[in-house]
Amino acid sequence: MAKQKQTKSKSSGDTLRYAGYPRAIAYVNSDGKKRYKELPWGFAVYDTGEREGKYKVKSKVDGKTYEGQYAACHRLRRGSKESTTIWIREHELQDNRCLEIVFVDIGQGDGCFISTPEGKSIVIDAGEEDNMCHYLNWRFGTSKKTKFEAAIISHPDSDHYKGFEALFARPNFYFETVYTNGLMEYADPKKPLGPEKSHKLPDGKKGKLCAGLVTSYDELKTFLADKKNWTTKSGRGKQFASMLNEAFLGNKEIRRWGEDKPEQIPGTGKETMGDYKMLSVDDEYLPGYGPKKPVSMQILGPVTDVVDGRRMLRWLESNISKTKNGHSVVLKLVYGDVSIMLGGDLNIPAEHLLLSHHTGMESPPKPEDKEEFLAAARKVFAVDVAKSCHHGSSDFTPWFLQALNPTATVVSSGDAESFSHPRSDTLGAIGRYSRAEGDARPLIFSTELARSAENSIAKPWELKASLMDKFNAVSERADSREELMSGIKDALKEADIERSVAVFGAITLVTDGDKVVIYQKYEKKSSSGEHDIYCLTRGGDGTGPLEYQPRET
């Protein structure tokens, strides 16, 4: 048989299109015989407009028969078009861009990336190490200028914010606005969350409030300018404030292989972030994502107490960890008829505070008020998909899980075994309180369990340290620059860190506002494909709530 003609397209003729629901198959040639890659729903490709070959197939998804030609395409990777031509059946391509949420395997902590149908990019938390940076490098490339609409730091715990250090230092990354819950780490050990104020709370009890919240760009500028706020007597800056200071100044770094330290590039301001803002229930919605927008993001937490015209956050159980975690930024994202809950590290007192605030009722409720309470709570908190708060910790109230009532839950957990996240009782409770009617099944995903032990790098930062040791050894014995570079390249062959983090362990949600696909990479390629794909569709006559029914895809 004659070899199929392979044609390179001209950029001017390319059209950006996307893999159709629930996946598209890319072939090596236009005869459709040899698979190249499986492309999950929403995967971006450039359609050259060239067509070859013919096909007639019966879909396993809807049972319909489709016929047409193969479209010559190029995958979009690292922010650029790949040169390799792939062939995709015409009916497996779509023009409309979906909403995509990637729960990145960032180890112990949280981190997710959102790509909106309008092409906006948002990062919510970034873990403790640089896995999120590796993922975004893999997705956008290391040199292309990339603008993110927002960096949302749910709360100042290092396993949620420290990964932003690497992102803020990237010369090619820029964030229009950095959002936080307003809490700042202060240098005073007696007042680690800043000035305090005693106040009578709505329930009549006397409470202690965090009065030193940093709510705006100007307030951040004032806070950072007075280094006594965040620098200890030994001259060491508090980690969270130090990171924000570097971002505020616009300082950047260039990292070169084989060099122990990155090259520092002093900023002049505005190189990293354009604005800073505190988020709370008082704002109602994330700026630009109001209730009338195609994608809305309602702010359900933290709940503030306004005293003398200033927002304050109450101390929870007089515990700094409970207070920082419990006042996490909580977002309810809605696109079309699909709803998703994205929260930080909520805990029992925080969940009761949220439930009480949004229902106007006591939480936990009195026995005679249970049904009314749960109905009111679900009007606000019920979603189709939820990101499990606090990595699957057992510090939760069943009332909050019942209010969420999701059909799918994603748990972001890592390798810090002392926490044993996700907890067995938490997984059991999630399953118990999830939505599943008839033969439908609730779904629970875990970034840690999704990771392929054989193919991925669980702790890339440790591998980087090992590689650096090898680089140093190579540099000591190399007699020329050529020998040095050759040795470095040999060491790098041991791992593809960015691809490992990006591909293995990540859990991706894609939706068009009606259907939902959640997928993760198989540990090994199976006969059914390269990805474990779960489809959430409407129950009943197609107008009911989203549910998962096992089916072949």
If you had to describe this structure to a student in words, what would you say it looks like?
With 553 residues, this protein is of the alpha+beta class. The protein has three domains: 1-95; 99-450, 4-Layer Sandwich (Metallo-beta-lactamase, Chain A), CATH 3.60.15.10; 460-494. Helix 1 crosses helix 14, helix 6 (320-326) crosses helix 7 (348-359) and helix 8 (370-381) crosses helix 9 (398-404). The longest helix is centred in the C-terminal third of the chain and has 18 residues, at 460-477. The chain is globular, with a radius of gyration of 25 Å.
Note the main sheet.
10 strands, mixed
Number of strands: 30
CATH fold-level topology of the largest domain: Metallo-beta-lactamase, Chain A
The largest sheet has its strands arranged as 18-13-12-11-10-9-27-28-29-30
Q: Give the second-level CATH assignment, the architecture of the largest domain.
A: 4-Layer Sandwich
The end-to-end distance, rounded to whole angstroms, is 31 Å
Task: Calculate Rg over CA atoms.
Answer: 25 Å
The portion of residues forming beta strands comes to 25-35%
Residues in helices, as a percent range: 10-25%
Rounded mean pLDDT score: 86
User: Helical element count?
Assistant: 14
- Which class do the helix and strand fractions yield? alpha+beta
Contiguous low-pLDDT stretches (5 residues minimum) are 1-12, 452-456
- Globally, the shape reads globular
